[in-house]
Amino acid sequence: MNAEDRIERAKNFYEQVVFGGDASVLADADRDLDAVEADAALARGRILHARFLNERASSGSSPVEDPAELPLFERATELYEALGDTRGQAEALFWIGCLHQVIRRDNETAVPHLERSRQMAAQVGDKPTQAEALRHLGIAAYMAGRLDEARERLEESSRLSREVKALPSVAANMVGLAYVAAAQGRHADALATLDAADAIAQAHGAQGIVRQIEQARTQI
Known about the structure:
The protein is mainly alpha-helical.
């Protein structure tokens, strides 16, 4: 059921209560509207995160964090948990972890959220969220110097992304794998990985990933 359906159903519930005297539907109305609020909070938080990434890419420096972003993701997590929506909760937890890692550069706080997101996504077969969590866990492992773990996480993320045909995500993982290869002294592998990533990104119009590849070439 989409948001429009849920809102329309809430209107009908109102009429059932006020005109029909049936108050038993109030709990269902609350659940429907909580689901709409959770989806909206998650979507708005993601847009704020996209705005941060866009400003960072444009300016070359990290912009100020929007103070509304984290509360939106936390509210979505709270609502999804109350609704028993494991898939939604896994996705919201991922974004909390992503915010701590990407914006606040705090992997110590990010990793538990990312790991819980990965576990919950696996429980419900949500491969896209599982893959995203694994990528950021791989990034955390790389930054901590655990290169074999980073490679394993990123390769597993790529496998899941290929299964759901999310090829731009595969290209993003390959950028990370190139950094890992370079750190392990496998310079030729790193460059070949970037070439393969560029081919995928170009084929799918993923210009944001293309920019990451170009930056990686200057650093590897």
